[in-house]
Amino acid sequence: MVSLKIWIDISNAPHVRFFKDVIKYLESEGEDLIITARDFGDIHKLMNMYDIDFISVGKHGVSLYDKLKESTSRVYELVDVINDEKVDVALSKHSIELPRIAFGLGIPSLYVLDNEHALAANKLTLPLCNRIITPNKIDIWKLMQFGADPNSIIPYNGTSELMHFKSFEYNDNIFDDLDLKLKYPKTILMRPEPSLASYLDADCHKSVLSPIVDVLKEYANILILPRFKAQAEIFEGIDNVTILEPPVDTSSLMKKADLVIGAGGTMNREAAILQTPVISCYPGKTLAVDQYYIDQGLMFRSNDIDEVIQKALAFIVNPHEKIDFKTDDLFQIIIDNIYDLGNEGK
């Protein structure tokens, strides 16, 4: 059987964990992979940590002008990388550039989506995708408003973070391995907001977590996993606060911690899957994928600082009991659609 040539584009750090098992599986099946990744956050470090070969193309822009300029430049560079490769199928998760290039070059594309509020990204990509894999919690009508063909949408029960744990091996010694100096018996892992993202209006030199840290550092060890240097500087020099330097084994950290408080999304949902108590104080609109875990009783959400603090103190004393919930096999859904799309033109 002739192998497929598959292009995977990675544009954000969580997408490395999302695709790593897909990449390893496809490689083991003898498929020919082209993996591109932009220079943003910890993407390159994570790619190296998971031993994934990749081509670095483009970078991230902060202002709207920079975002447009960098994305346009990245399309220009990627076209030259992909044009002569005779790609059978292209795969991405919220990449702005891959659907546009795949459409322009006549390559079938498979797109993974989990943010219905990413207005600009969705308008630029969804109308161009052959198939869109998305949680069934997201309203299909919202995706159609962005121009998605309803016949292209493949819903599933669960969220994309399920992919992060397909080959997860828990390291119970993670605190010792990181040589953490922990004063209290309880530990809280915190993740600041994605303040550089286009879908969130936030100041990258401030964090909604600051007043929460100021109180909870008197009751538990605080571990902060920042997204970038300026964000780390917000929490520097605070007693009983440890700033983690990525890449680290965040999955083991979340499982080991007594509580996760996140102003973002991915790590909150990962904690929910691991059944570590988690509080979301994400400053944007509640995402459907967050509501999925809230409805399951696996996540608490509030933007009220006092309420977050009180709930945090309650959680570190009385964590919730294990909750059983059923999900679809997202890994198999992705693999099946890669082969289905890739073999259509064979």
TrEMBL record:
Signal peptide start-end: none
Highest rank taxon of the organism: Archaea
InterPro entries membership: DUF354 (IPR007152)
Listed Pfam families: DUF354
PANTHER family in alphabetical order: DUF354 DOMAIN-CONTAINING PROTEIN (PTHR39662:SF1), DUF354 DOMAIN-CONTAINING PROTEIN-RELATED (PTHR39662)
This protein's name: DUF354 domain-containing protein
Lineage: Archaea, Methanobacteriati, Methanobacteriota, Methanomada group, Methanobacteria
